[in-house]
Amino acid sequence: MHLPPPPATRSPLSRAVILAAGLGTRMRAHDDGAALTPEQAAAADQGTKGMIPIGRPFLDYLLSAIADAGIAEVCLVVSPAHDAIRAHYTRGVSLRRLRVSFAEQARPIGTADAVLAARAFVGDDPFLVMNADNHYPAEVLRALAACDGAALPAFERETLVRDGNIPPERIARYALLDVDDGGHLRRIVEKPDPATVAAMGEHAAVSMNCWRLTSEIMEACRCVPPSARGEVELPNAVQWAIDQLGMRVRALPTRAAVLDLSQRSDVPAVAARLAATTVTL
Q1: Other CB atoms closer than 10 Å to residue 122's CB: what's the count?
Q2: Tens digits of per-residue pLDDT, 78-132?
Q3: 7 in any annotated domain
Q4: What is the value of pTM for the model shown?
Q5: What is the pLDDT of residues 15-29, one digit of tens each?
Q6: What is the C-alpha separation between 245 and 234, in angstroms, rounded?
Q7: Is the dihedral of CA 64, 67, 71, 72 positive or negative?
Q8: Phi, psi at residue 179, to the nearest 5°?
Q9: Does any domain span residue 230?
């Protein structure tokens, strides 16, 4: 993995927001070819991707990586129906390195709205925000937390394909990053079409929706218009903040694998990759 050294001085960061309120539509879709245990299939049927057991709930592995990165305060943004997640982290597991709280997203209207749900948790402090169905390496999260201001890992496509579990055709739909010569994000292109991919180049960096953000993002999350899908989305809010607020977002060139648990066929591969991972919460 190639990451720039952290700055000599920086503001401490101790908070992370995990977006766990999604409906899990793709995970609930039936797949005869996915070899799941009965317990995994039951969790997949509910669409609660973070609770899919691979030795222990998938979300435990992400939380352990967050703790390894030196972050102690975590807010899980959940839907009103996610009682299993609440129960697991309040009564089902012992927490020694983390303090876990919850924010509720009343309706699944987008990731920017999910971040807004955590505004009381965030306050005026910088924070990390990431998906609940991805496993990001602790060293990536640590480098991201060490930055000043807003930042994101700019993942190298070839490494994601070679070392992760994400097929090239899925990565081709991920957001691409247009980064200026100073290493700052100029534009993020969500769900690029083939012409855009060709124009930006096959080596354009990829976003995995993992960010270091400051409290000014809350204004952008409130003001950004809905996307074509009718959702208020965090990448669009970041772009709004760049365009309207002059927010500067540092792009960290990153060669690292991310594990993606989006659909049933991902479960066996992710389970195999995390089988030897020690989890300490």
Answers
A1: 22
A2: 998 878 899 999 998 999 999 999 999 999 899 999 999 999 999 999 999 999 9
A3: no
A4: 0.91
A5: 999 999 876 666 666
A6: 15
A7: positive
A8: -110, 135
A9: yes
